[in-house]
Every structure is written in C-alpha cells, then in structure tokens.
C-alpha cells in the first residue's frame, strides 16, 4: 500500500487519497478525557505521512521532514534529526517551508476533528476536558495568518460539537427506526441538518454560531417529538381513540334499542379505560429515570446519516474496559464475560454498515 500510494506524484490522486482517509468515521462511546481520540488523530496524520500523501491544501506534498508517534504524540524532525519548530524570524516571518507545514498540520487536524472523530460521555466534566484537549491539540499547530502580516494567529474553529454528553448505552429509539414519516412532518430536511452542523463548525461569528446552534436543537427536538408520536405505544393510543370516536359518531347516525345502547356504552367504557391505561403507560415510559440521560444515536450525529435519515454507522468504534486482574474476579468473571459479549455486539451495532475495529 505504501509503495503504491507513495509512487504517485499526481496532485489529484494525492487529494483523492486524502479524501478517502478523511471520510473515516471513528467513535469513542465512553470518551472520557479524549485520550483515544487524540491518539487516533495523531496516528492518522502519521499514516498519511508514511503513505507520502500528507500535503497542503493545494495537494503539494512535504519533503525534508519525518513524522513519527512516540507516547501517542506527534514527533516531527528534519533531515538533520532536529525537532521541528515554528517561530518568527528577525524579519517577523516564519520560514516558508516551516509555515507551510505548520499550516497544513493545523488544517489536517481541524479536518479530522470535525469530520472523523466523535465521542460521547455521561460525565459532563469529561466532555469539557475532551473538547479542551482537542482544542489544545489543534493549538499546537496554530499558525500566523499571512493576511495579518504574521501578527495574528488563525482563529480556532468550533470543534466542540462532535463531543456530546449522554448515556451512550441507552437510547429511546432504535438505530433502524424508520424516519420517513417523521421527516415529512418536521420543518427541516436531513440535508438542512447537515448544513447547520457544518455552518456551526465553520462560522467565526458568535451570533451566527448561536443561530446555527438553535436550529440544530430545533431539528433534534422536532425529530424526537415526531418519533414519540410514531412510537408503538402512541400508535396504539391513537388506534384506541379512533375506535372511541367512531363509536361515538355512530350514536348520531342510527337509532338503537336499549340493549344495543347498553352494549355500546360498555364498549366505550372499556375503550376509555384502555385509553387511560395507555396514556399512563406512555407517561411512565417517557418519564422513566433510566432515560434521563439517554443518548439518541439515531439523530445526534448527522454525519453518519444518509439524506433519507438512515443510520449508516461508524467505520470504527473504540472501547476501553477497566484493567483488572482476572484472578481477582472470582464469581464475577463469568458475569463480566457476558457483559463484554453484549458490549461487543452493541459496538458492532454502532458500526452497522462497516467493519468494526476496536480496542478490547
């Protein structure tokens, strides 16, 4: 693979190979501080370098530098073995080659963080730490803008939206939930949703950011409301209510004997009892404590939905169980085996349309 990819000098091929790698979708459903995502970010960049397709925005590759991974960190050295440094010379400008590499690494990291890396954690503080860690990783390659005469650093993008808070093990709605009827009822399409998320990531205007954020929340709220409406419990309730209305309307159309009227009264009383039970059941389901922090994979990440709203899945999912000596587990060993088996199946479910790669 290295020899095949690295042998090309055509700009369009280099850009094409980068697009393939940049299309990978990787998810850590228990992201914690974000160590695995940062490590994955650096590994992808190192792989691009090894394949000789690490390039700037025009598709021009780099020479004279070597990129390796040590302790999950990117280590960049020149042909003399010296560490890469980005700084302004006495004339107030960086060297052309150093500036080109620094700028390319910044935008590589930005592209990968925005398009490839996704994380969820139930702990809101962990989510904040993970977002901060990704920002710091990007800040390592912040570059001075040519347009400012090399006096201002490039503004950091809104890369926080891919790291979300919630219980990734619990969802109200299945990944294969049909959204066709739901999408007909809401204000915006899936394409609109994707555009709002993209706009949020790209804007540097606070008011625009707030506007995109509100639209994103509106889409998710509308989808959630409609999915509740189309749930089996609500469909059952609607059917019972339709039966009751049909029975009540027939009272006005036909004359009935006292026996028929009594039979109809009993039918309607039974329907009313069932309707009340159905309403209470729906209320209990929707207010269950277990769903309080439920994370809805079905529509939280539009990057893994097609234009019809179907869940395509991630390419990779990462899991990191606690490290425990099995000798100390005792009777818990067999129970944990069953739990881990279930977790494997769940991770495979998240990668519904692709092969699964995970740390386990």
Q: Could you explain how this protein is built, in words?
A:
The protein is of the alpha/beta class and 360 residues long. Helix content is 51%, strand content 7%. It contains twelve helices and six strands. β2 and β3 form a beta hairpin. The relative contact order is 0.11.
Strand content: 5-15%
Query: Could you say which structural class the secondary elements and strand pairing correspond to?
Result: alpha/beta
Enumerate how many helices there are, as a single number: 12
Strand tally? 6
Query: What is the H-and-E element order?
Result: HHEHEEHEHEHHHHHHEH
Largest sheet: 4 strands, parallel
Q: Low-confidence stretches at least 5 residues in length (pLDDT < 50)?
A: 355-360
Q: Fraction of residues in helices?
A: 40-55%
- Mean pLDDT across all residues, rounded? 85
How would you write the strand order of the largest sheet?
5-4-1-6
> What integer value in Å does the Rg equal?
27 Å
Shape: elongated
End-to-end distance: 27 Å
What is the topological layout?
Elements: H1 2-6, H2 11-22, E1 26-28, H3 35-50, E2 65-70, E3 73-78, H4 96-115, E4 117-121, H5 124-139, E5 163-165, H6 180-185, H7 190-202, H8 206-229, H9 232-250, H10 258-286, H11 297-300, E6 316-317, H12 332-350
Helix pairs in contact: 3-4, 4-5, 7-8, 9-10
């Amino acid at each position: 693979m290295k020899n095949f990819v690295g042998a090309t000098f055509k700009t369009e091929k280099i850009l094409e190979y980068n697009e393939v790698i940049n299309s990978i979708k990787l998810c850590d459903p228990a992201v914690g501080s974000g160590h695995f995502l940062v490590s994955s970010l650096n590994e992808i960049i190192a792989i691009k370098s090894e394949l000789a397709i690490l390039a700037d925005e025009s598709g021009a590759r780099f020479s004279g530098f070597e990129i390796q991974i040590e302790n999950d960190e990117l280590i960049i050295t020149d042909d003399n073995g010296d560490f890469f440094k980005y700084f302004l010379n006495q004339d107030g400008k960086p060297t052309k080659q150093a500036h080109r590499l620094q700028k390319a690494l910044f935008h590589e990291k930005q592209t990968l963080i925005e398009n490839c890396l996704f994380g969820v954690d139930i702990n809101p503080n962990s989510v904040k730490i993970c977002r901060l860690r990704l920002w710091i990783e990007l800040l390592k390659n912040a570059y001075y803008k040519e347009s400012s005469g090399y006096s201002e650093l490039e503004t950091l993008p809104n890369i926080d939206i891919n790291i979300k808070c919630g219980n990734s093990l619990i969802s109200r709605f299945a990944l294969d939930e049909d959204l066709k009827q739901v999408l007909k009822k809401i204000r915006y399409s899936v394409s609109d949703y994707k555009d709002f998320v993209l706009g949020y990531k790209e804007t540097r205007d606070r008011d625009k950011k707030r506007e995109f954020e509100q639209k994103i929340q509106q889409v998710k709220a509308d989808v959630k409301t409609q999915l509740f409406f189309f749930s089996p419990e609500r469909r059952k309730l609607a059917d019972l209510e339709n039966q009751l209305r049909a029975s009540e309307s027939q009272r006005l159309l036909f004359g009935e004997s006292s026996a028929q009227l009594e039979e109809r009264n009993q039918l309607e009383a039974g329907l009313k009892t069932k309707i009340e039970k159905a309403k209470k059941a729906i209320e209990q389901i929707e207010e269950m404590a277990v769903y309080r922090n439920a994370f809805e994979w079905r529509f939280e990440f539009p990057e893994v939905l097609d234009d019809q709203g179907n869940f395509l899945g991630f390419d990779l999912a990462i899991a990191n169980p606690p490290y425990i000596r099995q000798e100390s587990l005792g009777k818990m060993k067999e129970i944990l085996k069953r739990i881990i088996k279930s977790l494997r199946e769940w991770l495979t479910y998240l990668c519904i349309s692709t092969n699964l790669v995970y740390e386990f």
